[in-house]
Design a protein that fits this description.
The chain has 125 residues and is of the alpha+beta class. Helices cover 23% and strands 26% of the residues.
């Protein structure tokens, strides 16, 4: 590890999950396919949230980093399935990532219990 950071930090009911890549924590392998990396990213994020008494449904903000623009539609199609009905505020960008092996990384902010609260989602055309 090159820096000092936490995988996740909680402050009261807020949960901040740092940028997460699709590296399997057990095997250390990274799938070649961008969507398969996204699948692994969400396995990790969901495991982190569960360990903190939270769920994907509590996510209120996501930031998606896709290395190459040509993978955006496929990755966001998968993420749309994961967040269907949750609809967090989301930012997507295509910056260079820490290595060319990473095709997608995601960070999320969740509020423990948000899935049980009244939320207002705003859509602008």
């Amino acid at each position: 590890m090159l820096g000092s950071y936490s995988r996740a930090v909680t402050v009261d009911n807020w949960i901040y999950v740092s940028l997460t890549a699709g590296r399997n924590p057990d095997t250390k392998e990274i799938p070649e396919d961008a969507v398969e990396q996204a699948v692994q990213v969400f396995r990790i994020i969901e495991k982190i949230l569960a360990s903190l008494g939270s769920f994907l449904a509590d996510v209120v903000m996501s930031r998606v980093f896709v290395q190459s623009p040509e993978h955006v539609n496929a990755v966001m199609g998968f993420i749309a399935q994961k967040f269907k009905g949750i609809n967090p505020a989301t930012t997507i960008t295509c910056p260079p990532l820490g290595s060319t092996v990473y095709k997608v990384e995601v960070e999320v902010t969740a509020y423990r219990g948000a899935s049980n609260l009244n939320k207002v989602n705003v859509e602008l055309e």
